[in-house]
TrEMBL record:
Family classification: Belongs to the aerobic coproporphyrinogen-III oxidase family.
NCBIfam families: PRK05330.1
Any Pfam family hit: Coprogen_oxidas
InterPro entries: Coprogen_oxidase_aer, Coprogen_oxidase_aer_sf, Transposase_17, Transposase_17_sf
Entry GO MF terms: coproporphyrinogen oxidase activity
Transposase IS200-like domain boundaries: 5-118
Top EC class, one word: oxidoreductase
Taxonomic lineage: Bacteria, Pseudomonadati, Bacteroidota, Flavobacteriia, Flavobacteriales
Binding partners and assembly: Homodimer.
Source organism (scientific name): Winogradskyella marina
Protein name (database record): coproporphyrinogen oxidase
Pathway as given in its UniProt record: Porphyrin-containing compound metabolism; protoporphyrin-IX biosynthesis; protoporphyrinogen-IX from coproporphyrinogen-III (O2 route): step 1/1
Its EC number(s): 1.3.3.3
Keywords: Heme biosynthesis, Oxidoreductase, Porphyrin biosynthesis
Domain of life, source organism: Bacteria
Amino acid sequence: MEKLTIGHHFHIYNRGVNSANIFNSEENMAYFLTLVEKYLSESVDILSYCLLNNHFHLIVEIKNNDASQAFSNLFNAYSKAFNRQNSRTGTLFERPFKRKRIEDEDYLKNLILYVHKNPENHKITANFSTYKFSSFQSFLSDNKSLIHSKKDYVISLFENLENFNYMHQNTTQKDLSGFGNLTADLEVKDKFFNYIHQLQDSITSKLEAVDGKAKFQEDVWERPEGGGGRTRVIENGAVFEKGGVNISGVHGKLPDSMQKYFGVEDADFFACGLSLVLHPTNPMVPTVHANWRYFEMYDKDGNIVDQWFGGGQDLTPYYLFEEDAKHFHQTCKTACDKHNPEFYPKYKARCDEYFYNAHRHEGRGIGGLFFDYCKATDAMSMQNWYDFVTEVGDSFLEAYVPIVEKRKGLDYSKAQRDWQEIRRGRYVEFNLVHDKGTLFGLKTNGRIESILMSLPPHVQWVYDHHPEAGSEEEKLIKVLQKPVDWV
């Protein structure tokens, strides 16, 4: 562990244990900054900072030999207050806190850019300059702040305030890609965990607007073995009969059944992701499913021995509108093509193969994308996979909402509603018999209400049912029996 030496600059950063949140609200962040001033002002000068939900960055200059103890006092004081507020016990921050000595001013200058742009790079905000809990705005203000003692020095690194602002506005994440290695232990896991929180907010907000009647009900839960999640369910709306948009982050000892599955012993794991299913009332509007997830596995010493991304999105119509199928698949292809032109045909084929009810000899729907075990290679780093998966996640609303808006007002008969419920039965069969996510949740003692959230509220199983020859219902069945290239 590197010693905090007087007169040198250090990057101090840390996160919550097992990537848990250390800030649940803006009030938490504001209180943390109050404690920073209280406990650190005598021992360090602060050049820059940024707080995110489950980690923080501080760039400091060490003033005396008490700096290490000052940081410990800060973390202890905040942890006690946070635990008391949230009725929790135990360690909040990982130990020891991480530090990296900064050797030259060019590195320092780019690190300051990296820290200030962190909220945008993590997709917490669309514009880093408006984010309240970084030091960026303090450099543009005359008010006294945490960085006041080093404000002029930092600006001088950029020559003047105008250039300071220009560099911040025109430096891209790609320009700072080398700093991804700086907090490699934070970047993949924590960036994605933060991302799914933001994505859940944006998706549920848009779907409430589309429905116009129902609101998502939120249920925050904890898993006894470690971690928890945030379930959001919408029911009996003007458009959505039932739907859920759930996020979770769970960790602990990998269950014996899963250790056998992966061929490991005494392994711990961390898994997080967002999973959604939406069942509209109108049978002319398709059901949709999407999932984006990240998994890490550790040895007995806590070292990462494996990590990967997975996910995708797929459409399950009850009545086939070819233009809707083409739109959905084109949106998927556009997201894939930004990263690799081979991804769409590859992951489209995997989706057709995966979402297949073998016992019925038909697909669950008309597919989309499915990818799993996306691991680092010479061609794709974990950061590259993060960029790809979040691109797909960001495309979801564009892929689905225009279809809903176009079809939600169409008339339908009771017979068509019956057909929808019969097809929903096939959906249930797939999820309970074949779906890996459902099986993983059940085998890791996941929250049963969240796992079975994907099941529709009204379903029919009609004995030996066959649609009428030449009907729209038969047209759908024929398409489900042989995958179609929609784009």
